[in-house]
């Protein structure tokens, strides 16, 4: 079968899996194929489910319920999957029957005469409006009735029949997507019928129309986007056959990419490199450079120039582009360094990383990947002192626990942690009153001492500095070695939790009381815990949920 209940639970999550158990009796119309299963699950509506079986993934699910259309493996998929597992012994027989039906249908169709096939097609066309429309469009394309094809394609792309209040809502998007796909099929048929030049022009009209319409469509599932991509592919295929004027094509591509309607198709002009040839690519580069000069801060203009530089392997041009817009975090410096690395220029790459460190020296928030990049290269070169210096500078700028840990790792590797630690803790002692680690958090000094396992120093520094989180962590780490100190912390934290309510608060209070009892046991004063707990229960007895939680913990 390729999957089991564990795989279904992993795909759906516990909540959807458990809900799917309640829909087993709602599964009907199970149809088993060689590598897929379809069924209908009756929920709020009748939802169509398709499971694709086998392969290295095991099982994939698709359901047309709202949750399933968001790409989730929903409760209806779970119900069908469980039904398949419960009917595992019947699956081979059902697959064999499906193959027999398919081969029987193929044999029957093959045996029909031309007149009988025509009668069958006419019968289906009469009862299926979408099929009739598709065949009419193909017929017009086959007989080169270009006027009819154009009118029909543009009508298919008109979203107004799907729009309520001028907007194609989520539930109407799949229907519109089917029409867009029909238009793409018609464009391909036009090319296949020897009318590729006409297909190019009509595809460009279609792409513009889709660009204008796409902003008014809720395409959360991307179904319209997929159909639009098919139209763009039809344009590229038509261009590959028709070989339009390369300079005109370059102008159209740049105009499209830089226009307001590229959100729908996301065309990449370089996909057309073979059609454009040397002349077209040169014109493309010229137009992109002109657009960049007119709008030096334009995202689309910059992206187009970057793509051209990438395609031509011109790393210096790419570096020059990136260097025009260096962000304060150093992320752009890193990107330049990575491009130079990929081009086999490690010395230039490191130089840009070092420049990034200099340019961001005064910044609190720096892209950590840039720092890691430089440190990794210094470490490989045996330049441990420079690695420590970088980590020290970042620590002094950030004063965070993460930066402290990175400094510690680098300094230990260089055999210099004792000296570096003393200086780092001195800096944190100066910083402690400002609580640089953030709102509602104690100073980094205490976190650093706890992370070092220096509990004695942490106890000395904690008074007047540590927050409740840090006090509890300190008590937890010291419960066995300093039970009296830990007990005092736990008792104070219990007092703070007497007023708040809620299940999470009650669970935390119970855990603290268990810690209090543990400390009393270590001190040999467990007899004092019994009256303390009794008094607390009496004081808070009206909170029935709390009493239930305490009972559950044996308190």
Word description of this protein:
The protein is mostly helical and about 550 residues long. About 0% of the residues have low confidence.
Mean pLDDT across all residues, rounded? 88
Q: How would you write the strand order of the largest sheet?
A: 1-2-3-4
Query: What structural class do helix, strand and pairing data support?
Result: mainly alpha
Approximately how much beta-strand content do the residues carry? 5-15%
Unreliable stretches covering 5 or more consecutive residues = 434-440
Tell me the distance between the termini. Answer: 49 Å
Quantity of strands, as a count: 4
Largest pleated sheet:
4 strands, antiparallel
Number of helices: 29
Rg value: 34 Å
Per the principal axes of the C-alpha atoms, what is the gross shape?
Answer: flat
> Percent of residues in helical segments?
55-70%
Tell me briefly what this model is.
By secondary structure, the chain is mainly alpha-helical. It is built from 29 helices and 4 strands.
